[in-house]
Design goal:
mainly beta, Immunoglobulin-like, Laminin, 4-stranded mixed beta sheet, 2 helices, about 5% helix, about 35% strand, rod-shaped, repeat, calcium ion binding
Length: about 400
């Protein structure tokens, strides 16, 4: 709410009047100067022109034909409209000590006719967001105009329009209504406490679409679900969510229960969708491991797989059985039968004795496996003749005259 409007009386004779926290400033038309743009410097004597050189403000690039800015010599009683943020209002701070500032030779210093001391600043904001331009020990904003692309490049206020800034605690607010998607160009003047002079400012505000809030969200919703920062980069087309370590999703809406790597023994952690409610996950264990976190080896012997008194040993890969004498197989399921291979030949009969066997041979055969024919002539049964084995017996070919 204005207490008084210093521009109401049209004090600028040949120029435009603009209010500021310190009174009013006259934006003089080409060829005029003075506190109220009341003097044509072409008609002044040389000595008077010289005396008035100091109060004149910024005509850094004469080719652009921009008017002079004249600073007030006295303080006027004026207050800017108070910023009254609406419910759910989004605002970002432009802090001079945290903003990258490039020396701007093109625009120069507003308090002199030199090209030194200008500031070139680029600032990115999400859509539907106001900017609080902080007033600090480094600098404070005095005036601001929104200009065309051409005016910005040429550092000219021609075709520009004065912006009414809103008073807020700790700074001035550039309302979101003044900002369109894309590049917004401004020219302003700062009161630089370091150089003790008025410094020209060229400010580019880049407004980008924000993907940090769900479509149709309530104004009270927090960007990035309150679990991340809404950021952008020069090479990005939008503002997006940079989530805290334990959250993921385009809006940081999902708690990542696997972020802490709770599953052991190289198991795979599977995050269960639960929003922000609970720490829910499952572990997919590698073969040989079990437990909620795959922390234990599987006991393959719990089902007692070894038979016939075998001793079971468990490992990650499975179980093994130490079989007692007389048994074999993976589970000691097979009894050892020494006669299973039919070791007794020539119709001999096999008899098992634990791990050994014995053969009862058929007539005419002998040996451990009945593999040898009995030599019935070995004992020389023929007293006076020649012995011949015949089948399971023998015959004597007697000497003539004997039998």
């Amino acid at each position: 709410q204005f207490v008084s409007d210093p521009c109401a009386s049209n004090p600028c004779h040949h120029g435009n009047c603009s209010t500021s926290g310190d009174g009013y400033l006259c934006l003089c038309s080409e060829g005029y100067e003075g506190r109220n743009c009341e003097r044509s410097f072409h008609s002044l004597p040389v000595s008077e022109q010289t005396e008035l050189t100091s109060p004149r403000q910024n005509r850094a690039i004469s080719s652009t034909l921009e008017p002079d800015v004249v600073l007030p010599r006295s303080r006027a009683t004026v207050t800017l409209p108070t910023w009254q943020p609406k419910e759910g209002q989004k605002v970002v701070d432009l802090k001079w000590d945290e903003t990258e500032i490039t020396p701007d030779v093109a625009c120069g210093n507003a308090s002199s006719n030199t090209s030194a001391g200008g500031r070139l600043v680029s600032f990115e904001v999400p859509q539907n967001t106001s900017i609080k331009i902080r007033q600090d020990a480094t600098a404070s904003l005095i005036l601001l105009w929104k200009v065309t692309t051409t005016g910005f490049k040429q550092c000219s206020l021609i075709d520009g329009r004065s912006i009414t800034l809103l008073q807020a605690l700790g700074g001035l607010v550039l309302s979101e209504e003044m900002l369109a998607l894309g590049n917004n160009y401004f020219i302003g003047f700062l009161n630089d406490s370091v150089t003790k002079c008025i410094v020209a400012l060229r400010l580019t505000v880049i407004v980008k679409v924000s993907t940090c809030m769900p479509v149709g969200s309530h104004s009270g919703n927090l960007p990035c679900s309150g679990k991340g920062r809404c950021i952008t980069k020069p090479d990005e087309a939008t503002f997006f969510c940079d989530c805290e370590d334990e959250y993921h999703g385009s809006l940081c809406e999902e708690f990542d229960a696997c972020q802490s790597q709770p599953c052991q023994n190289n198991a795979t952690c599977i995050d269960v969708a639960q929003k922000h409610d609970r720490n829910i996950f499952t572990c997919s264990c590698l073969p040989g491991y079990t437990g909620e976190l795959c922390q234990s080896e599987v006991d393959h012997c719990i089902q007692q797989p070894c038979q016939n008194g075998g001793t079971c040993s468990s490992s990650v890969s499975g179980f093994s059985c130490q079989c007692p004498e007389g048994f074999l197989g993976t589970s000691c399921e097979d009894k050892i039968d020494p006669c299973a291979s039919s070791p007794c030949q020539n119709n001999g009969t096999c008899y098992a004795d634990r791990l050994a066997f014995s053969c009862s041979c058929s007539p005419g055969f002998t040996g451990p496996t009945c593999a040898q024919l009995i030599d019935f002539c070995a004992l020389n049964p023929c007293a006076h003749g020649i012995c011949r084995s015949v089948g399971t017996s023998y015959r004597c070919l007697c000497v003539p005259g004997l039998y």
